[in-house]
Amino acid sequence: MALTDTITALQSDFGDLVLSEFRGQHRVTVCRAQMYDLLQALKVQHAFDMLVDVTCVDYLHYRGATDRFGLVYLLASTSTNARLTVRVLLNEPELTVPSVTPLWEGGNWLEREVWDMFGIRFDGHPDLRRILLPDEFTAHPLRKDYPLQGRGERHNFPVLARGDA
Amino acid sequence: MAQGGLPMAVELPENVVVSKLDELASWCRKNSLWPMPFATACCGIELMATGASRHDLSRFGAEVFRFSPRQCDLMIVAGRVVMKMLPVLQRIWQQMHEPKWCISMGACASTGGVFDTYCVVQGIDRFMPVDMYVPGCPPRPEQLIQAIIDLQDKIQREGTVEGREFESVARQQPKRALLELPVIHVPVIGK
Fold first, then answer.
1. Contact call for residues A88 and A35 (beta carbons, < 8 A)
2. E strand or H helix at A89, and its extent?
3. Does the CB of B186 have a partner CB in chain A at under 8 Å?
4. Is the pLDDT of residue B179 over 60?
5. Cis status, amide bond into B138, omega within 30 of 0
6. Does B169 touch chain A (CB under 8 A)?
7. Rounded CA gap, B137 and A10, in Å?
8. Do B182 and A155 touch (CB under 8 A)?
9. Deepest in the core among A49, A93, A115, A160, taking most CB within 10 A?
């Protein structure tokens, strides 16, 4: 099934989709409530069997942006070679979305990274811990309101002198 | 010389040299440095080049890189150290036996370099002792060799059998991390 057919089918199944296209790359923006159903349909009915990446964009202070976070799912189909970008716009305080690990097992670590860096919670994730930063880290440093030089995290270590063994 | 009227012979055979025990120990130590390569970034590549045949670190008796801290006495920190790595670095440093020395190789290990971000330690000397700093991004092998030569001079100059030089006041200066407060920048609100 060609990608245009997929998008037409999605439009009839899910009402308020925002579609866009840039140089042959197609993008679908979906609301938070319909997100899981849409991804499930893409996997089950439209053969998008590979979750390439889950990432996030913080649009704080971004010119013309109306929403705070843009959660991005990059999908690919190994049978049709089609690729599709699914975006979900999120705003505080509703920063929880359903986890896609039941659909794609590979989403596990990708969602942990988004939680670590942006603080987006994934409902139903089997093990939502930090993946890159130390466990005692309290902030989500890729948010734009996080200072570039940190909040003192890189200072809190014991100082070794000569003779400390 | 002999006192109390008893003559004493201090004649030495031709192949005997008299020295101090401290200087003898330092001479042995400086010519058989065993580096611990703590290479985390591109400085590590130059560190490898230094140990390879073209630059030939064995001319200075420091070619035996060991990856076990128990067998090393010279830690070469080559590359940036992130805050998650610093406890590892400190632990390896503590596992090395005295007498031991540390070379901070390159801009990142010495100051954080261009990586002034929330996760990169701004100079390892804030949290552990450093004997030699090598500037450069990354330093050429010649610079690292010069640092090792300078460190050998330092060991010969200051070294003692019991390691008394490590207790001197200059080596016990409070580290910068204890003097500085964490910097917090408030982002500028966009238009």
1. yes
2. strand A83-90
3. yes
4. no
5. yes
6. no
7. 52
8. yes
9. A115
Highest mean pLDDT among A149-158, B9-18, B72-81, B176-185: B72-81
Find tokens 């896609």 and name the residue. A100
Contact criterion met (CB < 8 Å) for B185 and A155: no
- The pLDDT value recorded for residue B189 is 57
The answer to whether the CB atoms of B127 and A154 lie below 8 A apart is no
Out of A2-16, A42-56, A111-125, B105-119, least confident range: A2-16
Contact A120, A69 (CB under 8 A): yes
CATH homologous superfamily of A2-156 equals: NADH:ubiquinone oxidoreductase Nqo5 subunit (3.30.460.80)
Could you state, in order of their start, the residue ranges of all structural domains in chain A? 2-156
CA proximity to A108, closest of A36, A57, A54 = A54
Q: Which of residues 85-114 of A touch B (CB under 8 A)?
A: none
pLDDT above 90 coverage of chain A, percent? 65
Of all residues in chain B, the one with the smallest CA distance to A157 is: B127
Mean pLDDT of B81-101: 91
Reduced to 3 states (helix: H, G, I; strand: E, B; else coil), residue A74 is strand
Which residue on chain B is closest to A133 by alpha carbon?
B84
Mean pLDDT over all residues of chain B? 85
Which residues from chain B sit within 8 angstroms of residue A155, using beta carbons? Answer: 177, 180, 182
Taking only residues 61 to 90 of chain A, the set having a beta carbon closer than 8 angstroms to any beta carbon of chain B reads 61-63
| Cβ-Cβ contacts under 8 Å, B177 against chain A | 155, 157, 159
Q: How many residues does chain A have?
A: 165
In the block, which residue shows the tokens 């976070």?
A69
Helices (H), A3-77: 3-13, 35-44
Residues 101 through 160 of chain B touching chain A, CB cutoff 8 Å: 116-122, 126-129
Residue with tokens 């987006």: A120
User: Using a CB-CB distance cutoff of 8 angstroms, which residues of chain A are in contact with residue B80?
Assistant: none
Rounded to the nearest angstrom, the minimum Cα separation between B65 and chain A is: 22
B191 — pLDDT class (breaks 50, 70, 90): very low
